[in-house]
UniProtKB/TrEMBL annotation:
Keyword 4Fe-4S in annotation: no
A Gene Ontology biological process term: response to stress
Name of the molecule in the record: MarR family transcriptional regulator
Species of provenance: Primorskyibacter flagellatus
Record-linked PROSITE patterns: HTH_MARR_1 (PS01117), HTH_MARR_2 (PS50995)
A Pfam family it matches: MarR_2
Keyword annotations from UniProtKB, A to Z: DNA-binding, Transcription, Transcription regulation
HTH marR-type domain ranges (all copies): 12-143
Organism domain of life: Bacteria
Keyword rRNA-binding: no
InterPro entries: HTH_MarR-typ, MarR/SlyA-like, Tscrpt_reg_MarR-type_CS, WH-like_DNA-bd_sf, WH_DNA-bd_sf
MF annotations from Gene Ontology: DNA binding; DNA-binding transcription factor activity
């Protein structure tokens, strides 16, 4: 017999499905926003994450929450366009490091110039407190999933 869900469990479930719907919309909007720069939402996400810290493809995949094989394909495309380079990894000769090139950093700067007015428009009507709480809750949910509490 199924356990009766708690109010917070029901709300968490509704939040999860809303986040999944939002993720789809953000992907489409991201593709539209940066498509003219030769980027997709996936390329943009991987490139921006790689710029934060030099990492292996596997570490990038864990960071963005995508399959390693998917991120490898994106990295290969970015490397073919000269936006990233693969460098030797002193810790593991088999797992090369993804390094954003100057051209990749320039492309990210262009994407950021497009992103700022877009996110400002999306933020209209929300208070800073609402957005801060939303970010905190989503971050905590992700951290629980990272720990294996699914």
């Amino acid at each position: 017999m199924a356990e009766t869900p708690s109010e917070t469990g029901v709300l968490a479930g509704r939040t999860i499905f809303e986040v999944l719907r939002l993720a789809g919309r953000l992907t489409l909007a991201g593709n539209d926003l940066v498509g003219g720069l030769g980027l997709t939402a996936a390329r943009w996400q991987v490139l921006a994450t790689a710029e934060e810290e030099v990492r292996t493809v596997a570490a990038l995949a864990r960071s963005v929450g995508l399959a390693r094989q998917s991120v490898q394909r994106v990295v290969n495309d970015l490397a073919a366009e000269g936006l990233v380079a693969l460098a030797d990894n002193p810790a593991d000769r088999r797992a090369r490091l993804v390094v954003v090139t100057a051209e990749g950093s320039g492309r990210l700067a262009q994407a950021d110039r497009l992103r700022v007015p877009w996110t400002e428009a999306l933020a209209e009507g929300f208070t800073a407190e609402e957005l801060a709480v939303t970010e905190q809750v989503l971050s905590r949910l992700r951290a629980r999933l990272d720990r294996g509490t699914d």
